[in-house]
Amino acid sequence: MSPAIGGTLNRVDGRFKVRGESRYSAEVPVTNLARAVIVNAKIASGRITAIDTSEAERAEGVLAVLTHLNLGRVATVPRLLPSLAGLAAPGQTFFPMQDDLVHYGGQPVAVVVADTSERADHAGTLIRIEYETTPATTLLDQARDRAYVPERIFGGLLPGHASRGDVAKALAEAEVCVDATYRFAPNHHNPIEPSASTAVWEDVDRLTVYDSTQGPNAVQFTLAELLGLPPISIRVVSHAVGGSFGSKAMVWHHPALAALAARHVGRPVRLVLSREQMFTSCGHREEQEQQITLGARADGRITALRHHKLSLTSPFDDWAEPSLQSPSVAYTSPHYEGVYHLVRGNTITPTFTRAPGEATGMFALECAMDELAERIGIDPLELRLRNYSATDPESGKPWSSSGLTECYQRAAELFGWRDRDPRPRSRRDGQWLIGTGMASALYPVTQPVNPQRARARLYNDGTAVVEAGVSEFGTGVFTAMTQVAADGLGIPVERVRFVGGSSDLPNVTAAVGSAGTSAVGSAVHLAATQLRDELIRRAVADDHSPLRDADPANVEVHDGKMVLRDRPDVGETYADLMHRTFAPDVEVLGTWNPPPQDVGYGVHTFGAQLAEVAVDADLGVVRVRRMVGVFAPGRVLNRKTAHSQLMGGMLWGLGQALLEATRMDPRLGRWANASLGDYLVPVNADAPDVVVDTIEVHDEVVNPLGMKGVGEIGVVGAAAAIANAVYHATGRRQYELPITLEKLL
Ligand code: MOS
User: Fold this and answer.
1) Is residue 641 helix, strand or coil?
2) Which atom of ligand 1 is nearest to the CA of 247?
3) pLDDT band at 497 (very low <50, low <70, confident <90, very high)
4) Nearest CA among 406, 465, 482, 407 for reference residue 641
5) Distance CA 521, CA 514 (A)
6) pTM of the predicted protein model
7) Which of 212, 512, 518, 656 to probe ligand 1 with, by most ligand atoms within 8 A of CB?
8) In percent, how much of the chain has pLDDT > 90?
9) Cα separation of 616 and 623, whole Å?
10) Pocket test for ligand 1, best of 352, 509, 518, 656 (most atoms within 8 A of CB)
11) CA of 82 to the centre of ligand 1 (A)
12) At 242, is the pLDDT very low, low, confident or very high (cuts 50, 70, 90)?
């Protein structure tokens, strides 16, 4: 029996998806269901001076119209804490409809409940609201002078500024200097499934919420605090989630609004966000600007890095995507300074968006590196190798594992980088200017804070159920967990069923920061191997077992049969032992305690990205022709799903480079392109020839299986490789994303 881990097992939920049988949270059958819709503020700042709901209340099918005047008050709004902490994780520390103030465009101001969603929608249009408008800040440019440096960001988990050495002195003494400012349009996640919550009260203190979320437990804890109920009163179920990318990582206001509405009307209530509402209800990647100053010696050795970031955050929270972590450790640089600057604006609190922070932070650094390579006159890949750091430059500790130089090498071979003529505009294919570019990819290995748990139960026919509270939002985590459990128990994958997606199951972190599969996988691995060891212990202690008195360390399991390592003909199956000993099932709980932050190693994920673009010499149209990404994500559980995630990440990078931008209309304080028709994402016709490869580095530090995660690293560096290729093709540096064609005319 070959190991399941590392194979290419098809998605265990694939069958249900293609048959249309996956139950998304807006589809779970519930009897006596009422529908709720949110009505959003049409101003970006001010207060409600009058609200007339009488006509809406009289409309056909309407059960209730809730506003700040009659909606139940929330008990506590918990502090903002990334959902990795395993506690309540609200997306912002403001809960709407508690008073008459409006802080951002699209803020909920009313909830209409009716017997159908169409009737609720219609009644929503009948509500008359008068506002008193106050001046709003919706763009960075409107309020640069009000920028401040926060003490901490990211729910308090990261410092607002950090430094080592004397960066000013080192920059003054540098032989070569690159100084550049990069601007980033806001981005939205746009999962195919809009967020939806279905709230069912069975009693005054017994609530089930079917919710599309990356973390059922995080929703449970958040609702408990908002509603003032103990966690035992709340069950959160997430059978299937249709994509997320960070929009469902934190807990936004809609599940609580659904619960409050359901309590108000005494019926189950389903609340589904519209596509347009997805742009104002679940955070976004904030508008930001990053300044990079690199100082180097004439041979390219970096001596100093200064990295400042300016973000537009909400009135409530000091939020910035953490963009400074990977750049601060990407290369040897004795002198460093990184500072976040924030401007408060009239927006919902921004949030995690795929490869949060590092997708933009590494873009800035890797474009500046390309300029540095050109200034010094060396190959961009050679510049990276000269500055490769074998230890974490921040702490001086060795990497738990790296693989970066192997990634560079493999990527260069797959791409054919060696033949590159470094001169810009040196290649042409008819109308098209051809260029190539590269970038390093780094992403922090985020560890959950709290212990991770999974339960494994073996039945006396040799099949097993393994459970943990993680939800499946398209990453393939249920499939990978099936493989981990099968190998841990020594049984084929067909005999394992993984069950997740409910807060009733053992608590695991929300699947965020590329840490979902490694967090739950570590718990599943421990549960499965402990269950195996329990069965072996029982066998060697049983008078009737052929393994009686054997050394447990000398017993291994193949295909459900426990055998002596050196005498594979001696042994018995789990099923035989359990039947003989009247055990219908055996169950254990596996608990993984993540290593402490200060573990004695630098812990990071690495990769290399290369891209070839063609730019129309007259029209400025950019087509990406080829992308090669090679990554070292530690242990790869499933080559198929891991490579799919990495490829998806690279295409996100393509979108970030060329297409994705949410445009704010500052006169109205509203997003001008809040639809999938107007917000551009890459489609198949945009997708080039994408080559993905992985280098499996061994890592004993991060977790029992040595997984570092594949959720984000594929995005990082992809946009920089494309922008650098655009420069190589055209001779024009790009400092603003996305690179739209008018910037190349
Ligand atoms: Mo991920 S963007 O950390 O949900």
Assistant:
1) helix
2) 4
3) very high
4) 482
5) 12
6) 0.97
7) 512
8) 94
9) 8
10) 352
11) 10
12) very high
